[in-house]
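We store amino acids, tokens; thus:
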Amino acid sequence: MLPQTTPSLQNAPDLTPDDHEALRRAVGLLEHPSLAGRLTSLAGRPVELIGFALPATVAKAISSATSKGLEAALKVALRTLPASRASGSPRLHRALAAASGAVGGSFGLAALPVELPVSTVIMLRAIAEIAKSEGEDLADPEAALACVEVFALGGRAGSTDAAESGYFATRAVLAKTVSEAARLIAERGLANEGASILVKFVSQVAARFGMVVSQKVAAQALPVAGAIGGAAINYAFIDHFQDVARGHFIVRRLERIYGKQAIRAEYDRIAGREPPPPPSLDLTASTTLS
């Protein structure tokens, strides 16, 4: 008899009704990112399509501002989140983000290099509150990096192939970088913030976060924008990432209890997908060769 190649899910503990409902909520939040739809409702035009058609100079400005915003967020995540106390309700963070968006809406693209890092740090603190509420220890570098990872998870474009851009696919792309970065910080402290692995992490997150920033800029560039429009757009912006963070940290909490494989299988079942097949030995090839 051939040895079993993968752990069996039959012996995995059943989720409690509350945890199963929490996972259902997480699937809803993570499988249907809704920022483009919210911005389209505000602007009255399909901002996702407009975002892809932005001029090269605007795209370059977005890329630069996105990287600066994530660099600032990473420093906050690693230096101040572990020691921070509760910093306010989700509504407070949304209000602060709306205020920064009002400034950005008033001054347009020129304000993006200043406004986006401020908004990003505000969103990070809101994400950290959600992480702590789901049992994360932000003194653990991996948990702090998971807060920044949310900006990549919330930056998946709805029109791309789900197999390549889905929640677990995005986590898989970042997993090795997050693990290596967390190990570096745990072993050597924060003296190596410019280490290549952290630069790589920021670049990977920025590539996805930039998609959403492009949609935000596209919405702010439409005639409805201005101070009031900018505030509403930023409110939707942070609301989107808080939803993604809630789903992400629910999944992480349940993984700590039931194991990653069991939660992935149940997640896929709830989402209406077949889980990936377990690896198996290719007996056909060996028979042919013999």
